[in-house]
## 1
Amino acid sequence: MKNVYMPIPLRVRKIWVESDDKTLRTFDLEFVNEADAFDYMPGQFCQLSIPGKGEAPFGIASSPTEKGFLRFTVNRVRVVTTALHYLEEGEVIGIRGPLGNYYPVEEFRGKNVVIVSGGFALTTLRSLAVYLCDPANRGDYGDITLIYGARRPGLMIYRDELEEWEKKDDISVHLTIDEQVKGWDKMVGFVPTVTKEIAPSSEDAWVMLCGPPIMIKYTLPVLTELGFPPERIYTSLERRMKCGIGKCGRCNIGPKYVCLDGPVFSFAELEKIPEEI
Ligand SMILES: Cc1cc2nc3c(=O)[nH]c(=O)nc-3n(C[C@H](O)[C@H](O)[C@H](O)COP(=O)(O)OP(=O)(O)OC[C@H]3O[C@@H](n4cnc5c(N)ncnc54)[C@H](O)[C@@H]3O)c2cc1C
Ligand code: FES
């Protein structure tokens, strides 16, 4: 019988620095044994582990439509994330997953999708955007709009890719930074303000909203004003986790386990647990 606590070996194929302050790094990882490869959906996460350091949860930034690798973007915080930042290409780490639920791509099939994000929370939303824009899926969805903000250009993740997306006509991309800096010719202002300015139509549209708590707090009323009901606004929650599979009780919010019932929740679900929003 498969031991659900046993990590699978993954080799680091490629690493690059995402942010100019070097706190964010992206890792492309490949399975050491092809037979261990698993299917996943946008929004799911994995537990990455380094022997002697520990294990921590990270959202999958690659899309299931991208074959042969798994991508994660890691913000350096303390023990595990620092150890990940010290990894070199070719080294082997452990992974458990895929864990948790995913963005409700079946429910919003045929609808318009608005993705709103700030900082490095774009990770699993990148997975979603790539998945939706894949030629195999794009025809199943209406307009796709991305509103993404960072404090300054150097803290924006996936910059090269975002520039490519700006040129595409199957996704409408709006990038913003907090304050004007030399050379920046896109939008300026906080994500809630920019969302209000762009005013995506709420008709037949769903929102996936991930970012720092302050961004969520001020964007939510804007979305409500635009007519999005809480049933059609989804977010991904982060909580401290241990087992990742609903056994240890470390990650609960009210009666829900973030690792099992989430991390993706609608605001209609979260409203039933008032202290969480
Ligand atoms: C579902 C999920 C997806 C995530 N996706 C990503 C991702 O894509 N990229 C990324 O960089 N990080 C992500 N995180 C957060 C990441 O798991 C933590 O930053 C990491 O566990 C910190 O480990 P550490 O050993 O470096 O620091 P620790 O020593 O464990 O913690 C350092 C500080 O971070 C806080 N912290 C630890 N874990 C969490 C957590 N899960 N949520 C909030 N605060 C925490 C602690 O309270 C402490 O203050 C995700 C978390 C969850 C639950
Ligand atoms: S992390 Fe153990 S129950 Fe969620």
## 2
Amino acid sequence: MNSWDERYAPATYFYGTEPNDFLREQAPVIPSGGTVLCLGEGEGRNAAYLAGQGYDVVALDQSAVGLEKAGRLAAAKAVHIQTIVANLDGYRFDAARWDGIVSIWCHLPSAIRSTLHRQMVMGLKPGGVFLLEAYTPRQLRNGTGGPKDVDLLPSLAELRRDLHGMEILVGTELDRVVQEGTGHNGLSAVVQIVARRPT
Ligand SMILES: C[S@@+](CC[C@H](N)C(=O)[O-])C[C@H]1O[C@@H](n2cnc3c(N)ncnc32)[C@H](O)[C@@H]1O
């Protein structure tokens, strides 16, 4: 059992059962009714929300415990999601398969992250949308959530580099209040991206 499995072991949902605010706001940019892959989706709150909006959703995470709860959450909300237990280190995306790829607080080591984001672009269909919210290095000053290791925290400049060739619809770093279960609570330094693969 890895540390995420342990965190997800209780019956309660660590980040709650409601979707991330930025995802809720920006999800309509993803082509309607399309296929969506949620990276590092944990207990499934975002995947279940997107399925409820009519998307065909696959939730991927390394934590089997988290994804089992994701399946239960989807059932409780009377929607269907598919789950895949997989490690994103070296993950190969099927070419041009997804209308949307979603990364909410999916904090990975920099050595994995850049490669993943560059590969991810090829996994999008032309016109497909990448949507990300993550903590930035400035979040280390706040005690309100997120990793304590700066190597896991991307900057906007890095993401812009890795998403070279994508049309950046939203690319911002800001401070906002994040309230998500017991895991995220309070004013937070975040980066937000919505990027479209050109047609
Ligand atoms: C902070 S949680 C976010 C969960 C979910 N996206 C949400 O917003 O509720 C980060 C998730 O990333 C997953 N994760 C971290 N490293 C991973 C890796 N190398 N491969 C797959 N999943 C990973 C963890 O298991 C965890 O569920």
